Predict the structure.
Amino acid sequence: MDVRNCKNCGKLFNYIGGQPLCPTCMKALDDKFDQVKEYIYDHPRAGVQEVAEENDVTTMQIHKWIRDERLSFTEDSMVSLECEMCGASIRTGRFCKSCKDKLSSHFGSLYEQIPEEKKREFKEESKMRFLQNRGGNKGKGPL
């Protein structure tokens, strides 16, 4: 169990991953997200600065939601980002469709290159049994 201080309010909480926010602050952030999403729906041509000011949220938080693909803007919106690989204009996320496809095919080809682990041969007359190492008990004594 990992106990941390909330990045927002400083309270101690059980950290289970993701943003280091306590459940109360995480709920407040989710409520702000819903508010921002509704505002963008009602004002599709609003810019990031306007959305931030009207909803009492930082522009950095709005950009994070856009990069995480939680928020997106319409094509006629003034808001646009640059693809982190090629610099093309995008509306949400970190990469354009072309770069996503390239990354996906590259990672797929890397996966295919991983050699299959040699399997240990089992001889019927042998009384030795092999257990597959699952990484959980490395040199820590008997199971």
Remarks:
- The chain has a mean pLDDT of 84.
